[in-house]
């Protein structure tokens, strides 16, 4: 779960939320949160390039061995998605900071309690 939520503000006044920690939305939905919620086109392109590279590698290895699909192909794809879910939030936040966004507020959202 995301540990910290950052509110970032650009020079033009645009405010963006950025998170730290594991991105469960990327784990379960792949590039869709990047496209619809964050408008993060470099993230989508890198995710798709990495997925296509792994798929191509698995196909080439399968053709060399003489059979396709191999049971480990699914495991390799799962490991790729798992790595992206751990990597994405921090990478997105750091990239926004490098683009000129500044931290307005930092909230610890791991200790929030829902009170009804």
Automatic annotation (TrEMBL):
Alphabetized, the UniProt keywords read:
Membrane, Transmembrane, Transmembrane helix
Q: Which organism is it from?
A: Spartinivicinus poritis
Which chain regions cross the lipid bilayer?
A: 18-37, 44-68, 74-91
Please give the name of this protein. DUF2628 domain-containing protein
Output the superkingdom of the source species: Bacteria
């Amino acid at each position: 779960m995301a540990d910290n939520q950052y509110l970032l503000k650009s020079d033009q006044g645009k405010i963006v939320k950025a998170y730290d920690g594991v991105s469960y939305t990327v784990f379960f939905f792949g590039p869709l949160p990047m496209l619809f919620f964050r408008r993060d086109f470099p993230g989508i392109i890198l995710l798709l390039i990495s997925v296509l590279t792994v798929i191509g590698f698995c196909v080439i290895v399968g053709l060399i061995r003489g059979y396709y699909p191999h049971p480990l192909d699914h495991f390799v794809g799962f490991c790729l998605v798992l790595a992206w879910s751990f990597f994405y939030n921090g990478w997105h936040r750091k990239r926004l900071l490098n683009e000129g966004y500044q931290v307005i507020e930092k909230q610890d959202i791991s200790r929030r309690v829902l009170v009804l």
